[in-house]
Specification:
The protein is α/β, with parallel strands linked by helices and 144 residues long. It is built from five helices and five strands, in the order αβαβαβαββα. The protein has a five-stranded mixed β-sheet with strand order 1-3-2-4-5, sandwiched between helices. Helix 2 packs parallel to helix 4 (86-93). The mean pLDDT is 95.
């Protein structure tokens, strides 16, 4: 019985992908999908850079899910998966300047421009509730 590494990784990360897609966040898996979605997204767009790390599981994904229960939310919801969909993630990160690559991370864009960014170091030592509050505040400021 032999399983390829790629198949193994796909199986292992699928639940991590599902944490976001089951709450309505659209995966962008290729650079072309990123290019179709981000620069022309009218209104606001949330982009979650997903990851296999513990802070993504314990703080980032739950914080995003909680924030999306807020009364005001972005018009578009996207995710890329660092370390898995590498080219799509690299393309998305081009829109997050001047911030260096960080995963997990969360970007809020308005009319194709970055307006709020949460880096890994702002995720790993905070609770999911703190991240949700940060995002909810950003939604209040930029998503009206």
């Amino acid at each position: 019985m032999s399983m390829s590494f790629e198949r193994y990784m796909l199986d292992m990360v699928q639940p991590m992908r599902d944490d976001l897609t089951r709450i309505g966040i659209q995966e962008l898996r290729t650079p072309e999908e990123v290019e179709q979605a981000l620069p022309d997204a009218k209104g606001t767009a949330l982009v979650v850079v997903n990851s296999v790390c513990g802070c993504a599981a314990g703080q980032c994904r739950p914080g995003v899910a909680e924030a999306l229960q807020h009364d005001i939310t972005p018009d578009h919801l996207y995710t890329v998966f660092a370390g898995q969909d590498k080219e799509a993630t690299a393309k998305a990160r081009e829109y997050f300047a001047p911030y260096p690559p960080s995963s997990p991370s969360i970007a809020l864009m308005k009319d194709g421009e970055l307006v709020h960014f949460i880096e890994r170091h702002q995720i790993e030592n905070r609770s999911a509730a703190d991240i949700a509050a940060d995002l909810s505040d950003a939604f209040d400021r930029f998503c009206r």
